From TrEMBL, chains A, B:
Name this polypeptide is given: Glycoside hydrolase family 78 protein
Origin superkingdom: Eukaryota
InterPro entries cross-referenced by the UniProt entry: PcRGLX/YetA-like, PcRGLX/YetA_2nd, PcRGLX/YetA_3rd, PcRGLX_1st
Keywords: Signal
Pfam families named among the record's database cross-references: PcRGLX_1st (PF19501), PcRGLX_2nd (PF21345), PcRGLX_3rd (PF21346)
Domain PcRGLX/YetA-like N-terminal RIFT barrel: start-end pairs: 23-103
Signal peptide: 1-23
Domain annotation PcRGLX/YetA-like C-terminal alpha/alpha toroid: ranges: 494-917
Domain PcRGLX/YetA-like central beta-sandwich intervals: 123-488
């Protein structure tokens, strides 16, 4: 127990208890982890409650044992009260089931007492000219400010160096031998640091951010520019033996000549002075399984060295002195091979191979493998200590591999391959040659057939990214297998602390568009909807597994439409393949998580964030900040739009995670679409002939739903977070709120001119006199615009009423009768599809106007829509097992589900329930 | 029904029935196959029953429908009566549950009537100067007599050419890039035919045997000698659309510079005049699953071409005329990608990947994969027909792959990769550098520690082989998915016809060393033994799966000893890893099959034959005919002995399979050890100092059990089969039977001089005066010597009594009391281990002498042995589940089992029961 050894805690506990009324409880998302190596989480706070400049936070267990905490603000209400906080808890021997976080004023004794009593556990940072030294109390980690190694050394508290020269490595080739190319160059690159920063407050948690690029390895005779920029974040916690590492790369190569053939991180592990038989290799297998090997094994021999010798080796403890062994073994050691290298390759999501060899130049020996490896490797010694490196979602992100090398020499190494060099090279070229689609007309004709929106040059991976989570653990001696097994589990499902749904909801800091299932009347109709929501979540979780939505780029995405004839998702058909967040399944998953707190849903939604924000979005080049429409390749479609990259999809994760810094970067980067809009005209292929449009930062021709809403979400988050451009972002939102209602038909105008330097809107070029354009698109309302505008309205309490009214009017009229539309706008809307998906707009209007008839209309739209992309109460709401020769692999299918429909059903159901309660 | 359309069958049926008393029933090993594409099987016959020169055979169904049959003799009793026959049944639409095989004289009306009525279904062979043309009635297959293509064309009965240019392909490289070597040469080879033969009688079954070597492809600028000789056998049956193909290669490269990086068979598939949307790709998935794709898919599009179009494409039938389609699809065809290439890779036993691409130079697109693929691929068209190629045990022999290429061009192709070019190259170098073991003394010292018997130069794969079974199917149009699924199943478990155990036993043609479980009194003691036998079989079946005893070289082997500390078989410890048939598990499995008829046991034992006879034996070079002792690599140990390659392990499979020709070759090749004994002195490291031995064909210093018994088995089989050297083989056995008893102590002499030119034995150099050497080794009696000598005694009815008596004496005295040994030989035997394993020798002596006391001694030895390598009634006889962090993958273990012990227990239990009945 933390408290037991500490004097003078009675008063402290009493103080903590006295503040309990304000305390917020957080608990583990899953069951409590076996080890707490420190954790970060986020909490929302209601408007006006806690002034940003004079609130501090303390943490304790449920029964008031104090817990070391570091806190920071991740979002502000406009009144300077705290909207969101991030918190870090230090590593600890005791892991509580839940924690209480208590906000209090600056003079509060609780805090200073806590500070005092936990000071011994604080991180110390030593900043020298070339190195940052971070001491967690368990590990001392040296971060060089330049050069190739991101980590130059890791020492244990006792002073043993257990890791060295931690660097990124990249292998690439200029062509594919199998395609008959000759003169292919094979290159090896190593990380080159360009920038290093450390978090300001690094008492409980230190964050070291290293940026750089992959640079040709010194030995190479080839020439290749530096490429594949990286950002690697190292999170260290007080009293922790773990380094959480968030590894991000951006692809900036040439798809046809820069094939990644290996991408990894490598550490050297000093082993001098450790006997070969005291050196241990541990590699994670299936379901917590672990390979137990010694570099020189003494079990299973013809002669028994002694039971204690064998069991010590299996358990990873120091062997009894050699003089105590059976002499036949002691004298025959030179005839027992030492295993220098180990390699685990996970080249498919379903099977891994494992092998070892005595040295280069000799054959590998197969070790029986299995299905899905845990993705962690340990190398070390019973006396010299050792290092473990693990990759989250190792098998889900295949092809991956793990190398342990030179274990029989003075300096071994561990390489974690995020992309395995044993796999065929990563190929990001277009999947077809353009099919002759060299004009907009042909591209539109093709769109009619395959739903693919092709345009040469737009199908580029230049600028997409991928982020991986790596865990580095340092040990003073070889840890127990159970411990490594537990850490493997934690590397794959990193412990998350989270508040209860009821608390999250009560703060109104994360939307009013959801409520908890318990808070809606338990009518049969509501119960059916809840059953259906649960069905959809389960369905996608199962589809991910059955359809193997796994892989380096792919994990975290789902697919768009189903081919009932072939019993397969349309993985190969133009715009029907990877979903790229089309119509907001991300929002469905996140809001479903918020209302239920279900761990599986958090993990489902988290993977979407890590995919969509990285792979489906651009981080470099002309498209920076934009996403890509759904397609066979994540980046293949020529529609580059912010509707895919919109921060509204990442917001919940960002705040709940305590402000995940990579996600923060991605959210901020969406502001860059102001520039992208000058370079990319989203409606270039479909604009009416005669309308001349030359993009101008002061007059961008944008759709409010598919173009502005994502940018607005970025503005709003910048404002909340008080990011570097927050005042500018706020001012633009204010200007929009003032100017948008001036458009004659406001949101019904659909597309108008946006001044990206001020936020002001003006009439479209087709209606310079502002006589009232009408451009209705079913797409405008289904990419988070409602959720963004409502967030804005709630955040910006003084928002001009005409803006709110205009929005409510749009919400009302989209689903109104043609007669009503005619009466209001002089014309009935042509496009009224996605009625179920838009029912939440109706419900929102009902909420805002208090109109009960409108609430009924919303549910009617939700329940009786029979157009495309809806789910009806009459649908089967079950899957069917398809097997035998009909399919490659037996699966469960629901051909009546499209992801468009599922996302809209899910989100509309949740929001309708929240806005107007259940159907009457 | 076959009979219904045929006139005049009444008399025929009557005749067939009249001979029913002699008819032998054969039934399918597993449930009857869905398709009968012809099958071969073997039947034994009792001595003196059917004269070889005037017996013919007919076949019918159980209710006497005639069945087309071809028969041949595979073994003769010395009195010229038939000992074993092989039979081939033609392909047929009707598949009966069982068949009756009736032997009869040459004038028998049954035969001639059958001949007459089935003549229409006979194979026709057209032999021209450069090609053999074989017409099965369903397929016309052209086999060139020279060049690269083993099959130049396959046509359907209607004249469509559905396969062309079937050739073998090989890729190799001279080094491993990853090891830092530069200047690596990459080579492509293609088959070059050196010899082609066809079976003499080819009416119902034609066997074309093609021999050759892999020759550098014409385009290469490198230089490499021809290498990797092959023998490929094509089995064609009347009325069959399948070509069973048995593909054998012998490794004759240099392990350090000839790395196989791809090994396969490739067919071109003409597709001219087939619309892209009528071309079909089918690839076998998991458990009968099948990928259904068209080269140009019309399902799942934005616009529906029409339900009939979609369903025809899924089902592989001709699409309705394009004029009937929705015009949006018909006019947009150019925008629907055509998929030129497909690739399935099974790089581990547990997971496969699948992908396709539109063309070279474009990215592959992932198709969701799965666990274990069926290993069959089809390419063809609804109107032009197509070809399917399947590999038996595809996933069990990973890394394998399937390529379909150029499907969108006029000529597609299917490549079946027996070794996938997507895997890391095949590495057959030694796994260690010799560990300094440069003298016999050091090698023997190492043997004491790791049980590995190392010697530089002996750890060579030069001359080992591997045989794969491939199935080629030709179709007039794309077949149904169900049919391809059924054929995939049949390619993996090729249908086997087999007689009942009772019949097999009654003929005494396959040993008297087993009986059926029912024939031994049902005492509790016997029931326990039966339970234990069943336990051991189940245990090994489960270990093969759980320990992944799979892979290109490995499938078909099991491992030798267990490491209870690490909960793993000792895969990495010298002589404890791959079992290489040590102490005859093969015989245990086969005799257990014979007595039970269990299909799973047949498959288990069959895989052992295909492994042991190929990978653990040499087929080229100095070691030809010898096997290799157990070790980390199958070929790694320096003990090259016939005890591993002995034909006694292959005999059951050879005869039951109707004389599998590859196995026949391997059996015959063991005769070559006469030469190998001149080159390899098995006891060179352990011979007493002072004994000078220079191998001489006329005076080979051999142990009767580990050296001669295997050769004797080869002689006996050559004699039975009347192979090319049968009279020589017979004469040598006769000479041995005459001369061996002249050794003063006969079998107790242990080692003596063998004249390999005559079969005569003379005293060992240590006892030139024949005063009576005594050399007892526990190994002499446990490599099939009892089974071989008993077969010889039974076959060679006139065998000299002194030889038989000498053998019975050895059987008696090995387990006799020291006092008895002392009384008889003047000294008690030093080595009396493997008592349980030798109890069957005691039981054999009991049988032969009728001594009931001896029978009791046998059971006593069996049940009370407590030395190493035995299993006791007190053992647990259950497995324990080991999971969690103790093991890489959860497994069931039985650390009390070694394969030595299991093999000896199994074989002794079965033989003791057969020789003396159950324990009293
Ligand atoms: Ca995507
Ligand atoms: Ca073997």
């Amino acid at each position: 127990m933390v408290s037991s050894a500490l004097p003078g805690l009675v008063a402290l506990v009493a103080l903590a208890t006295s503040a309990a009324s304000d305390a917020v409880k957080v608990k583990w998302l899953e069951s409590p982890p076996e080890y707490n190596n420190g954790v970060t989480f986020g909490l929302p706070w209601a408007r006006g409650q806690y002034p940003a400049n004079r609130t501090t936070f303390t943490a304790s267990s449920a029964n008031d044992d104090p817990v070391q905490l570091q806190s920071w603000i991740t979002a502000y209400w406009p009144d300077d009260s705290i909207k969101w906080t991030g918190h870090a808890i230090a590593g600890s021997e005791t892991v509580y089931d839940s924690y209480k976080i208590t906000p209090s004023g600056p003079g509060n004794a609780t805090l200073s007492n806590l500070r005092r009593q936990t000071k011994a556990n604080e991180i110390t940072v030593t900043d020298s000219s070339d190195t940052l030294l971070v001491d967690t109390g368990k590990l001392v980690v040296a971060f060089p400010k330049a050069g190739n190694a991101l980590i130059s050394s890791i020492k244990t508290a006792s002073g043993k160096t257990i890791g060295k020269n931690g660097r990124l490595i990249l292998k690439s080739q200029s062509g594919i031998a199998e395609e008959g190319q000759s003169g292919i160059e094979y290159n090896d690159f190593v990380s080159k640091i360009s920038n290093l920063t450390i978090s300001k407050d690094s008492t409980t948690r230190a964050l070291i951010t290293v940026q750089g690029i992959h640079h040709l390895d010194g030995n190479s005779s080839n020439a290749h520019v530096d490429w594949l920029p990286f950002t690697v974040r190292f999170y260290l916690y007080a009293n922790s033996e773990a380094i959480r590492t968030v590894h991000t790369i951006i692809y900036d190569g040439h798809a046809k000549s820069d094939f990644i053939s290996g991408l990894g991180i490598k550490f050297d592990v000093p082993l001098t002075d450790e006997e070969l038989y005291n050196r241990h290799v541990r590699i994670a297998g299936v379901d917590g399984g672990l390979l137990h090997e010694a570099v020189q094994g003494l079990t299973g021999l013809r002669r028994d060295p002694g039971k204690d010798v064998r069991s010590a080796q299996f358990n990873g403890t120091v062997l009894p002195d050699k003089s105590t062994w059976d002499t036949k073994v002691a004298n025959g050691l030179q005839y027992i091979p030492a295993w220098n290298d180990y390699r685990l390759t996970q080249l498919s999501s379903d099977g891994f191979n494992l092998k070892k060899r005595t040295k280069v130049g000799q054959s590998w020996v197969k070790i029986p493998g299995g299905t899905r490896a845990g993705g962690l490797a340990y190398l070390g010694g019973a006396t010299v200590g050792g290092l473990a490196v693990g990759l989250r979602d190792f098998w889900k992100k295949y092809p991956t591999s793990l190398d342990i090398a030179n274990a029989a020499t003075d300096e071994g190494s561990i390489t974690l391959w995020l992309y395995s060099p044993s796999a065929e090279p990563l190929d990001v070229r277009p999947y077809h040659d353009g099919l002759g689609e060299d004009t907009y007309a042909k591209q539109l004709a093709a769109l009619e057939v395959t739903y693919e929106d092709f345009e040469d040059g737009y199908n580029t991976p230049y600028g997409i990214g991928r982020t991986n989570e790596i865990f580095i653990y340092g040990f003073d001696s070889t840890p127990s297998a159970d411990k490594l097994s537990a850490l493997t589990k934690q590397s794959n499902t990193p412990p998350v602390l989270i508040a209860e749904p009821e608390y999250l909801h009560s703060t109104k800091a994360i939307g009013i568009n959801w409520n908890t299932p318990n808070s809606t009347s338990g009518s049969a109709a509501v119960a059916t909807i809840e059953t259906h929501l649960n069905f959809l979540i389960d369905f996608y979780e199962k589809q991910i597994e059955q359809r193997r939505f796994y892989g380096f780029w792919d994990y975290g995405d789902i697919q768009h439409s189903y081919d009932a004839d072939r019993h397969t998702w349309r993985y190969d058909i133009g715009g029907y393949a990877w979903d790229n967040s089309e119509l907001s399944p991300d929002l469905f998953f996140w809001t479903y998580f918020l209302r239920t707190g279900r761990a599986d849903v958090y993990r489902l939604a988290e993977a979407q964030v890590r995919h969509g924000a990285e792979v489906d979005s651009y981080h470099l080049g002309n498209f920076t900040g934009l996403g890509t429409r759904h397609g066979v390749q994540h980046w293949g479609d020529s529609a580059k739009q912010v509707r895919i990259s919109t921060p509204v999809y990442r917001k919940s994760f960002y705040y709940l995670s305590g402000g995940d810094e990579r996600t923060g970067d991605l959210i901020h980067a969406v502001l860059e679409v102001e520039k992208a809009y000058v370079l990319v005209d989203a409606r270039r292929k479909v604009r009416k002939p005669g309308v001349v449009y030359v993009p101008d930062p002061k007059a961008l021709y944008l759709n409010f739903g598919t173009d502005w809403a994502g940018l607005a979400s970025a503005y709003l988050l910048e404002w909340e977070r008080r990011g570097p451009r927050w005042e500018e972002a706020r001012d633009k939102l204010v200007k929009t709120a003032e100017t948008y209602p001036l458009l004659k038909n406001a949101f019904v105008t659909g597309e108008a001119l946006y001044n990206s330097q001020t936020g002001a809107w003006s009439p479209p070029p087709t209606d310079p006199g502002n006589n009232g354009n009408i451009t209705i698109s079913h797409l405008s309302g289904v990419f988070g615009v409602l959720e963004t505008i409502d967030d804005l309205i709630h955040h910006y309490a003084d928002i001009p009423k005409p803006f709110v009214d205009a929005w409510i009017e749009y919400c009302y009229y989209y689903g109104a009768t043609p007669e009503e539309q005619q009466a209001r706008y002089g014309v009935a809307f042509a496009d009224r599809s996605l009625k179920q998906g838009h029912s939440r707009l109706t419900a929102y209007a009902a909420l805002k106007t208090g109109n009960a008839t409108l609430a009924a209309r919303a549910w009617n739209e939700f329940l009786t829509d029979s157009s495309l992309d809806e789910l009806s109460p009459d649908d089967p709401w079950k899957t069917e097992r398809i097997g035998g020769s009909d399919v490659l692999v037996e699966i469960d299918e629901a051909p009546w589900i499209s992801t468009n429909a599922a996302a809209l059903y899910g989100l509309s159901a949740i929001e309708n329930l929240a806005f107007v309660g259940g159907p009457k």
